[in-house]
């Protein structure tokens, strides 16, 4: 992350989450776990979803890099995703 200090954290959706018990929007059930002030936000796309986050403070501005995967995501795809996310450079 270009030498910047980042907080790293994981958010993991329970593998046994029944989306049918969650809120509905246009007929689809979803679990909103990261609401935004103005519409939208980040929501789960399935049980077992994992979000690996790097949160950077850039002189008072926040940058969040998110690498999302699922239990069935292949190790090769996870490795590629990790390389993409960690290649972020802030100039």
Describe this structure in words.
The chain has one helix at residues 75-86, and strands at residues 6-12, 23-25, 28-30, 32-35, 41-43, 50-58, 61-69. The protein has 91 residues and is mainly beta. The protein has one domain (6-86). The strands form three sheets. A three-stranded antiparallel beta sheet has the order 1-6-7, with helices on one face. Strand 6 and strand 7 (61-69) form a beta hairpin. The longest helix has 12 residues, at 75-86. The model has no long low-confidence stretch (mean pLDDT 84).
With strands numbered from the N-terminus, the spatial order across the biggest sheet is 1-6-7
| CA distance, first residue to last residue | 10 Å
Uncertain spans, ≥5 residues at pLDDT below 50? none
Q: How does the helix and strand content classify structurally?
A: mainly beta
List the helices and strands and how they pair.
Layout: E1 6-12, E2 23-25, E3 28-30, E4 32-35, E5 41-43, E6 50-58, E7 61-69, H1 75-86
Quick structural overview:
This protein is mostly beta strands. It contains one helix and seven strands, in the order E-E-E-E-E-E-E-H.
What tags apply to this protein structure?
91 residues, mainly beta, 3-stranded antiparallel β-sheet, two-stranded antiparallel sheet, 1 helix, flat
